[in-house]
Each structure stands twice: as C-alpha cells, then as structure tokens.
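Handoff note, outgoing to incoming analyst
You'll be picking up this chain. Sequence as last confirmed:
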Amino acid sequence: MLLISYTMFPCTTKTPSSLFPFLLYSPQFFCSFFNKTPQISRMAYSSTDQSLQRIQESRRITTGDEASTSISLEEWQGWGTISPVPSMVNKVIQDLNLLEKDINAHMTFGGNHGKLTGDFKVQEDKKHRAKYASLGNSEEKIQFFSARQIACRLLGSRGYLCQKCWLPLGDCMCSRVTMCSLWHRVRIWLYMHPKDFLRQNNTGKLLWQVFGVHAAMLCLFGIAEHEEMMWTEFNRAGKDKVWCLYPNKNAATESVKDGIGPYLAGNQDSPSISANEDDTMHFILIDGTWSNSAAMFRRLQERAELSWKHDLRCISLNTGVSLMHRLRPQPSWDRTCTAAAAIGLLYELQLLPDLSSIELNKQAEAIENALEVLLEALTTRRLRMGRSISRKGRHHDDIC
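Most recent structure output, in case you need it:
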C-alpha cells in the first residue's frame, strides 16, 4: 500500500471551519479539483521519457569501495535524523555485501521503495528468512525486520532520491519549501514505520523540512538508537508532558482543549519546574499505514507502562479532509495524513487561551504550503510517467 495513514477520531467540540481552511475541504471539492486537471498534460511527454524513467528506476549497487559497505554518519543524518547510525542497519548492509561476493551477483533495486530485484533478491530472501526464523524473541525479530527494511531503502535510494524531500532528484521540491520556526515549547515526534521510510508520498517528512530536525524529530519503529533517544526525552519531561495523537479504544481520548488546556492553565510560568525538567510539550504522531499503526501504538503503550506504570495520554482532533486524500486515499474521509494531523494540532493549540498569542496558526500554514507543494510535485511526476493522478480508495461510496 502507498498510504501513509494517520487516523484520529473526531472529538465532539465544534471548531469554526474558517480556522481550518486547508483541512476542511469537502469531498465534492476534491472531485471538482481533480476533474479540472488538464488531461492534455498526460500526452505532453513521449514514450521515450517513460522508458528512460523505467531505466532510471532499476538501479544497481556495486561494492567496489569501502564507502558502499556502510552508511556514514553524514549520509544517515542527511535523510532527516540527528541520531547516530543504527548499528544493526550497518550490520545488515555488511551482510548484503558479503552475500554479493559469495554468490557473485550484484545487488539491484527497482521501483520507489528500495526493493531488491533479480537473482540477488531470490538468494537474499532465503537468507533473511532463515535469519529471522533463528532469532530467539519478538524484540530481536522487530529490530531485524526494521533494520533490513531501512538498509535496503538506503542503498536503493543512493543517488536517486533527494535526501531532504525524498523525491527523485529530477522532481526535487526543496527550493519551493519555506522553513519556519516551531514554537520552542512544542516538539513533534514522527514515530515512523520502516516501510514508510524514504517513501516519496510520505507527508511526515514535511515537518522537519519546514521546522527542522530538532523541532520535528524522526523516530523509526524498531530502531533501538531512535527509540531510546525518544524515550530518554520523554522520561526527562515526565508523563504529563507527552501526548500521542491516536484513537485509543481502550481508554478515554481527550480533545486538545480538555487534555492540554488544563495543563497549560496550571503550569504556565510555573516555578515548580526542576533543573532536570523543561516545559516542552511532546506530541507523538504515528506515521504508518492504518494496519501498521496498531502494532506501533501497542509498542508505545508497553514502553509507557514499563517507564511510568501508566498509559500514554491520547488526544483527538477535529480533522477534515486533507488535500492529499484524492492522490493517496485514506480508508475513509475522516482519516487524514500525518502532515494534516500536525496542521490540525497546531490550529487547535492556537485556540487555547494561553497560546492565542503564539501564532501557531502561521506555523500550521507553513506546513499547509509545503503539503500543497508536495501534492503538485507528485501529481506532475505521475502525469509525466503516464500514471493516473487518483487511486481508488477502499470505500468507493465515499469517493466520487
């Protein structure tokens, strides 16, 4: 699936639609928007262009020098993270290089997601399945799965994707994205599934493109270095300053007003903050398909119980339809992409009396603008390659 779904149950509090100009488009708007797309542009590119694109998407990685046997810190952090290089990712890459020498076959990657192809894929598939089966517990299996996914995507994307926007170099959108500072008391954590890492239509990447890698931090599911870094920050902040944007069916889900408003009212300029604490509010956005998000949320809850003997606090948003919905449909109209969830969060925080002067709405607008740039870049690419600019969703009755 090419979805990067982010789903939240709408809370009962009504929010003026004028404050959410980007999110609350109606389904009818999207039908009109895409029906007006000039169809002639589909024919503006020759079959030669499409053939060249297919050639470019089949990439061979050779291991004739030392640089190809590992991922450097500079390369790793160039993809949007501040962590050290995960040791298991480099171990997987070393194993791939050894296998290449053993079977005398080159690694080749095809498509957009760093997938191995050809004879090497057949042999590697046998080897990694045997390795996975030999691992003794579920934690080792999760870490190996994640490291392998990420290692293949890193190698398959070298020299092909832009490290900042994760689009093919010829479609790079970075020059059209404007950076903006996020309010210092808000930090967003993108808890990303490894199958969404380096995915071109991922919208979570826009958050650190706009706000920077220290304000919007990437945490990859199953990567020990990332998860430890994130939980170190959460433990330092304390459980009352960490929220997850996720519909927890087993516990009450709070609105932004009910969940964060009382905290701000009771802690604004509070002298009780110790030297080991700060006043940063941490928000976790789960960045993965809806089917993967349940396991990701469960992992977060297990760690919260271990660290705090308490569940993560969950909040819901008044989200509408993201502009990305038609290009990359969600299971239903009330579910939205990761960037749109961040936009909704910032708009709702702006409505709180204690934050009304922070201009979080302008920070939300910066993400809106970047999301529109991404939509345009993806649409242009699909048209150039002769592909449809819309995809069928699961609920056909909801999408015109």
